[in-house]
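Deliverable D4.2, example record:
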Amino acid sequence: MYRLACIAIILSAFTTYSCGQPKTQNDKIAYLLDVLEWEKSVNTQIEHKKLYYSHLQISPEDRMVIDSVWHTLDSGEVRNRMTKTLAQRFTPGEIDTMYLFFNSPAGRKFRKKEYETYGEMDALFSEEYKILKLIEERTKGTPAAAPANFYKANRPDGIYLVERPLTEEQNSYELGQMPLLKLDVFKDISTIRNTDYSMQLQIEFTPAGAKQFYELSKKYTGRQIAVVADKTIITAPVIQEAMKETKITISGSGNKNEMEAIVQRLKKKMSK
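Output generated by the structure prediction step:
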């Protein structure tokens, strides 16, 4: 009976592969990139960088260079570079095996090499990132101070509803006058690494805070909120759904040091 079940599973996999599934090597690699969300992760990083650099006060010449970088790093180019790298690291036979059965020996190798391979792919865009960094350093003030207006908020500490988000014309948030919640709803805050190796904030609420945030998230699903500390917007996530959990995660656009700085800033406010 066990052998019959195994044969049925293998035949099912073979049938799925043979009927209607991608056949070319590039199609299989594209499938793997989608499943592992590597391409999505890089595109998300690029979008975060676009938003950040759109608020830097830079010269028209530098703006043209930045626009050229974004033009180079369109979604087609991102997939093209990642596809080539994956094809170089793994043989066609290994890609076929991973595509059919992720727990095969080749699939185990893939998972073992996942972090290393992702690091190589991220390095593919280092030249463009260097150009952006040079322009950032030419702006007045420190990199953190350059987009200062973007983060300022003349509000007491708390969680606010964003009345008007950032746009190309509007380089600062417009927040509600009164906080929806105070920061004392937070019990703890830390950073965690996501499966795509990006950094996230993990916020734990007090029991009472979790109930209050659930009511807030239920009422404002789809809306953007802003966490303000020291008259600075620390993070401004969009509420995706009503959340009853005592712990939530917030995706971040910063690196590990930047996200840790956010954590330390909020922890200081929580300890007061």
